[in-house]
Amino acid sequence: TPTLQKKDSCRLYKVSQLRSSDPGSSGRQFCRKTVSAEAEQEDIEVQYLNGSSADGCMHPCGAGSVPMGNVEFSIGAGAGIEYEVSADMCLGNCATVKAGLLQTVSCSAVLPGSEKVSKIGNTKLCCVTEVCPSTTTTTTTSATGENFKCEDGQGPAFASYRHTGDNSFEACAALCDEDSECKSFDFTEANSSHPELLSLTPTLQKKDSCRLYKVSQLRSSDPGSSGRQFCRCPASLFGCWCLGPAVLQEDCFG
Protein backbone atom coordinates (compact mmCIF):
# COMPACT_ATOMS: atom_id res chain seq x y z
CA THR A 1 0.00 0.00 0.00
CA PRO A 2 2.27 2.82 -1.25
CA THR A 3 1.81 6.16 0.49
CA LEU A 4 3.57 9.52 0.67
CA GLN A 5 2.53 10.00 4.31
CA LYS A 6 3.52 6.89 6.26
CA LYS A 7 3.17 7.92 9.90
CA ASP A 8 6.36 7.44 11.91
CA SER A 9 6.05 9.59 15.01
CA CYS A 10 6.84 6.43 17.00
CA ARG A 11 9.61 4.09 15.79
CA LEU A 12 10.53 0.80 17.49
CA TYR A 13 13.97 -0.86 17.47
CA LYS A 14 15.33 -4.29 18.31
CA VAL A 15 18.59 -2.79 19.56
CA SER A 16 19.30 -0.30 22.34
CA GLN A 17 22.15 1.69 20.80
CA LEU A 18 21.75 5.46 20.27
CA ARG A 19 22.73 6.40 16.72
CA SER A 20 22.93 10.17 17.19
CA SER A 21 22.24 12.74 19.90
CA ASP A 22 20.81 15.08 17.25
CA PRO A 23 17.01 15.25 17.79
CA GLY A 24 16.45 16.34 14.21
CA SER A 25 13.97 18.98 13.04
CA SER A 26 11.10 17.14 14.71
CA GLY A 27 12.78 17.10 18.14
CA ARG A 28 12.90 13.35 18.69
CA GLN A 29 13.77 11.65 21.96
CA PHE A 30 15.38 8.21 22.14
CA CYS A 31 14.16 5.90 24.90
CA ARG A 32 15.33 2.45 25.94
CA LYS A 33 14.38 0.06 28.67
CA THR A 34 16.32 0.28 31.92
CA VAL A 35 18.16 -2.86 32.98
CA SER A 36 19.89 -4.00 36.13
CA ALA A 37 23.66 -3.71 36.57
CA GLU A 38 23.98 -7.48 36.02
CA ALA A 39 22.02 -7.29 32.79
CA GLU A 40 24.09 -4.34 31.57
CA GLN A 41 27.24 -6.45 31.88
CA GLU A 42 25.62 -9.04 29.65
CA ASP A 43 24.39 -6.53 27.08
CA ILE A 44 25.96 -6.47 23.63
CA GLU A 45 27.95 -3.53 22.25
CA VAL A 46 27.35 -2.32 18.69
CA GLN A 47 29.38 0.27 16.80
CA TYR A 48 28.43 1.44 13.31
CA LEU A 49 31.09 2.51 10.85
CA ASN A 50 28.90 4.98 8.91
CA GLY A 51 25.67 5.18 10.87
CA SER A 52 22.90 2.61 10.77
CA SER A 53 21.37 3.62 7.42
CA ALA A 54 24.30 4.33 5.05
CA ASP A 55 24.38 2.33 1.79
CA GLY A 56 26.56 1.69 -1.27
CA CYS A 57 30.17 0.51 -1.56
CA MET A 58 32.31 2.04 1.18
CA HIS A 59 35.46 -0.06 0.80
CA PRO A 60 37.53 -0.98 -2.27
CA CYS A 61 36.48 -4.00 -4.30
CA GLY A 62 38.16 -7.11 -2.92
CA ALA A 63 39.32 -5.29 0.23
CA GLY A 64 41.15 -7.67 2.57
CA SER A 65 40.77 -5.62 5.73
CA VAL A 66 38.50 -3.03 7.34
CA PRO A 67 39.64 -0.66 10.13
CA MET A 68 37.17 -0.08 12.94
CA GLY A 69 38.54 2.33 15.51
CA ASN A 70 41.94 1.01 16.62
CA VAL A 71 41.23 -2.52 15.34
CA GLU A 72 41.98 -3.85 11.85
CA PHE A 73 39.64 -6.69 10.88
CA SER A 74 40.97 -9.20 8.33
CA ILE A 75 38.10 -10.02 6.00
CA GLY A 76 37.30 -13.74 5.83
CA ALA A 77 39.28 -14.50 9.00
CA GLY A 78 38.08 -15.63 12.41
CA ALA A 79 36.15 -18.44 14.06
CA GLY A 80 33.02 -19.45 12.14
CA ILE A 81 33.60 -17.05 9.24
CA GLU A 82 32.42 -18.41 5.88
CA TYR A 83 32.68 -15.19 3.87
CA GLU A 84 35.48 -15.13 1.27
CA VAL A 85 37.07 -12.04 -0.27
CA SER A 86 36.18 -11.56 -3.94
CA ALA A 87 37.43 -8.98 -6.44
CA ASP A 88 33.86 -8.67 -7.74
CA MET A 89 32.42 -7.74 -4.36
CA CYS A 90 32.83 -4.76 -2.06
CA LEU A 91 31.75 -4.09 1.50
CA GLY A 92 29.16 -1.45 2.25
CA ASN A 93 28.19 -0.26 5.70
CA CYS A 94 29.69 -2.23 8.59
CA ALA A 95 29.16 -2.62 12.30
CA THR A 96 31.06 -4.38 15.05
CA VAL A 97 29.09 -6.52 17.49
CA LYS A 98 30.72 -7.39 20.78
CA ALA A 99 28.95 -10.27 22.53
CA GLY A 100 27.87 -9.97 26.15
CA LEU A 101 28.69 -12.48 28.86
CA LEU A 102 25.67 -14.68 28.17
CA GLN A 103 24.18 -13.44 24.93
CA THR A 104 24.92 -12.19 21.43
CA VAL A 105 22.87 -11.04 18.45
CA SER A 106 22.85 -11.81 14.72
CA CYS A 107 24.32 -9.43 12.15
CA SER A 108 20.96 -8.95 10.41
CA ALA A 109 19.41 -7.79 13.69
CA VAL A 110 21.80 -4.85 14.08
CA LEU A 111 22.42 -4.11 10.39
CA PRO A 112 19.73 -5.44 8.01
CA GLY A 113 21.16 -7.23 4.99
CA SER A 114 24.59 -7.67 6.55
CA GLU A 115 26.59 -10.84 7.15
CA LYS A 116 29.49 -11.85 9.35
CA VAL A 117 32.74 -11.23 7.44
CA SER A 118 35.37 -11.25 10.21
CA LYS A 119 35.81 -11.99 13.90
CA ILE A 120 38.39 -11.16 16.56
CA GLY A 121 37.81 -12.71 19.97
CA ASN A 122 34.19 -12.10 20.94
CA THR A 123 33.76 -9.20 18.49
CA LYS A 124 32.47 -9.85 15.00
CA LEU A 125 32.38 -7.55 12.01
CA CYS A 126 29.05 -7.41 10.18
CA CYS A 127 29.01 -5.82 6.72
CA VAL A 128 26.54 -5.38 3.89
CA THR A 129 28.05 -6.88 0.72
CA GLU A 130 27.63 -5.17 -2.64
CA VAL A 131 28.43 -6.13 -6.25
CA CYS A 132 31.24 -3.90 -7.49
CA PRO A 133 30.24 -1.48 -10.26
CA SER A 134 32.11 -1.79 -13.52
CA THR A 135 35.08 0.57 -13.86
CA THR A 136 35.75 -0.18 -17.53
CA THR A 137 35.50 2.65 -20.03
CA THR A 138 34.39 1.34 -23.40
CA THR A 139 33.52 2.65 -26.83
CA THR A 140 30.49 0.79 -28.10
CA THR A 141 28.68 0.76 -31.41
CA SER A 142 24.90 0.88 -31.44
CA ALA A 143 22.67 -0.81 -33.98
CA THR A 144 22.48 2.43 -36.02
CA GLY A 145 26.28 2.58 -36.41
CA GLU A 146 26.93 5.55 -34.11
CA ASN A 147 29.80 5.21 -31.66
CA PHE A 148 29.46 5.98 -27.97
CA LYS A 149 32.03 6.31 -25.23
CA CYS A 150 30.58 4.91 -22.01
CA GLU A 151 31.96 5.23 -18.49
CA ASP A 152 30.73 4.81 -14.95
CA GLY A 153 28.65 7.79 -13.92
CA GLN A 154 25.47 9.79 -14.36
CA GLY A 155 24.23 12.73 -16.39
CA PRO A 156 23.52 16.20 -14.92
CA ALA A 157 21.00 16.31 -12.09
CA PHE A 158 17.43 17.17 -13.17
CA ALA A 159 18.58 17.64 -16.78
CA SER A 160 17.19 14.46 -18.32
CA TYR A 161 14.17 15.10 -20.55
CA ARG A 162 13.04 11.57 -21.29
CA HIS A 163 12.94 8.42 -19.14
CA THR A 164 12.10 4.88 -20.15
CA GLY A 165 12.35 1.39 -18.72
CA ASP A 166 14.87 0.28 -21.38
CA ASN A 167 17.64 -1.28 -19.31
CA SER A 168 20.28 -2.15 -21.91
CA PHE A 169 22.88 -0.13 -23.80
CA GLU A 170 21.45 -1.13 -27.17
CA ALA A 171 17.89 -0.07 -26.38
CA CYS A 172 18.84 3.22 -24.74
CA ALA A 173 21.34 4.10 -27.48
CA ALA A 174 18.68 3.44 -30.12
CA LEU A 175 16.35 5.96 -28.43
CA CYS A 176 19.10 8.56 -28.39
CA ASP A 177 20.03 7.87 -32.02
CA GLU A 178 16.47 8.51 -33.11
CA ASP A 179 16.24 11.86 -31.31
CA SER A 180 18.12 14.80 -32.86
CA GLU A 181 18.07 16.67 -29.50
CA CYS A 182 19.76 13.84 -27.61
CA LYS A 183 23.48 14.34 -26.95
CA SER A 184 24.05 11.75 -24.24
CA PHE A 185 22.32 9.21 -22.04
CA ASP A 186 22.84 7.15 -18.94
CA PHE A 187 21.40 3.72 -18.26
CA THR A 188 21.35 0.88 -15.79
CA GLU A 189 20.62 -2.79 -16.29
CA ALA A 190 18.54 -2.67 -13.10
CA ASN A 191 14.80 -1.97 -13.11
CA SER A 192 14.93 1.62 -11.87
CA SER A 193 12.05 4.02 -11.17
CA HIS A 194 11.14 7.21 -9.29
CA PRO A 195 7.94 8.96 -8.18
CA GLU A 196 6.52 11.45 -10.68
CA LEU A 197 3.56 13.31 -9.24
CA LEU A 198 3.58 16.57 -11.23
CA SER A 199 2.39 14.93 -14.43
CA LEU A 200 -0.79 14.37 -16.41
CA THR A 201 -0.43 10.74 -15.40
CA PRO A 202 0.99 10.77 -11.84
CA THR A 203 2.77 7.63 -10.70
CA LEU A 204 4.92 6.43 -7.83
CA GLN A 205 7.02 4.26 -10.14
CA LYS A 206 8.03 6.15 -13.26
CA LYS A 207 10.51 3.88 -15.02
CA ASP A 208 13.90 5.53 -15.60
CA SER A 209 16.47 2.84 -16.36
CA CYS A 210 17.28 4.86 -19.50
CA ARG A 211 17.59 8.66 -19.27
CA LEU A 212 18.24 10.99 -22.22
CA TYR A 213 20.00 14.38 -22.04
CA LYS A 214 20.35 17.39 -24.33
CA VAL A 215 23.84 18.08 -22.95
CA SER A 216 26.96 15.95 -22.92
CA GLN A 217 28.50 16.88 -19.58
CA LEU A 218 29.15 14.13 -17.03
CA ARG A 219 27.77 15.16 -13.64
CA SER A 220 29.49 12.52 -11.53
CA SER A 221 31.64 9.43 -12.00
CA ASP A 222 29.64 7.81 -9.21
CA PRO A 223 27.48 5.11 -10.85
CA GLY A 224 25.09 5.15 -7.88
CA SER A 225 23.53 2.14 -6.24
CA SER A 226 22.08 0.95 -9.57
CA GLY A 227 25.47 0.99 -11.36
CA ARG A 228 24.71 3.50 -14.12
CA GLN A 229 26.88 4.17 -17.16
CA PHE A 230 26.99 7.54 -18.92
CA CYS A 231 27.41 7.43 -22.71
CA ARG A 232 28.28 10.07 -25.30
CA CYS A 233 29.98 10.00 -28.69
CA PRO A 234 33.78 10.31 -28.69
CA ALA A 235 35.41 13.57 -29.78
CA SER A 236 37.39 13.67 -33.00
CA LEU A 237 39.74 16.08 -34.77
CA PHE A 238 36.79 17.70 -36.51
CA GLY A 239 34.42 17.81 -33.58
CA CYS A 240 31.99 15.13 -32.58
CA TRP A 241 29.40 13.34 -34.66
CA CYS A 242 26.82 13.28 -31.92
CA LEU A 243 23.83 11.07 -32.20
CA GLY A 244 20.85 11.57 -34.42
CA PRO A 245 21.00 12.39 -38.13
CA ALA A 246 24.75 12.97 -38.49
CA VAL A 247 24.78 16.45 -36.94
CA LEU A 248 28.25 17.84 -36.21
CA GLN A 249 28.26 18.93 -32.56
CA GLU A 250 31.28 21.09 -31.76
CA ASP A 251 30.39 21.18 -28.07
CA CYS A 252 29.85 17.46 -27.65
CA PHE A 253 32.17 17.43 -24.65
CA GLY A 254 31.63 21.06 -23.73
Q: What do these coordinates show?
A:
- It contains 3 helices and 14 strands.
- It has 254 residues and is mainly beta.
- Strands 7-8-14-10-13-9 form a 6-stranded antiparallel beta sheet, with helices on one face. A 4-stranded antiparallel beta sheet has the order 1-4-6-5.
- A hairpin with a 6-residue loop joins strand 11 and strand 12 (203-207).
- The longest helix has 10 residues, at 169-178.
Fill in the keyword field for this structure.
14 strands; 6-stranded antiparallel β-sheet; 4-stranded antiparallel β-sheet; single chain; 254 residues; 3 helices; disordered C terminus; globular; mainly beta
Topology (elements, then pairings):
Layout: H1 37-42, E1 45-48, E2 65-68, E3 71-74, E4 89-98, H2 107-110, E5 114-120, E6 123-131, E7 138-141, E8 147-152, E9 162-164, H3 169-178, E10 184-187, E11 193-196, E12 203-207, E13 210-213, E14 229-232
Antiparallel strand pairs: 1-4, 2-3, 4-6, 5-6, 7-8, 8-14, 9-13, 10-13, 10-14, 11-12
- Apparent shape: globular
| Proportion of strand residues | 25-35%
C-alpha termini separation: 45 Å
Number of helices: 3
Order of strands across the main sheet: 7-8-14-10-13-9
Assembly type of the chains comes to single chain
Radius of gyration: 24 Å
